[in-house]
């Protein structure tokens, strides 16, 4: 009977340890997922900024070309 009780106690300890390990692993996963999501959002923001800058540069170039064409037509 002593060995069964001892064995049962060991199982409870292992079960408790497994629960703690699972909780720790889950917490790490949650933190890394949050970090990944935040990084993705930052990258998306940078990509959007780049796209806007490129669009603005394109518009400025088109405006300059139109002005040059108008000046040439006047001459």
UniProtKB/TrEMBL annotation:
Residues 18-27 have a biased composition (Polar residues). Residues 1-75 are annotated as: Disordered. Residues 35-49 have a biased composition (Basic and acidic residues). Residues 50-75 have a biased composition (Acidic residues). It comes from the Eukaryota. This is Uncharacterized protein. It comes from Vespula squamosa (Southern yellow jacket). The lineage of its organism: Eukaryota, Metazoa, Ecdysozoa, Arthropoda, Hexapoda.
């Amino acid at each position: 009977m002593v060995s069964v009780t001892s064995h049962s106690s060991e199982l409870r300890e292992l079960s408790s340890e497994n629960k703690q390990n699972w909780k720790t692993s889950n917490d790490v996963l949650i933190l890394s997922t949050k970090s990944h999501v935040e990084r993705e959002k930052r990258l998306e923001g940078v990509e959007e900024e780049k796209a806007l800058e490129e669009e603005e540069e394109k518009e400025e170039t088109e405006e300059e070309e139109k002005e040059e064409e108008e000046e040439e037509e006047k001459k």
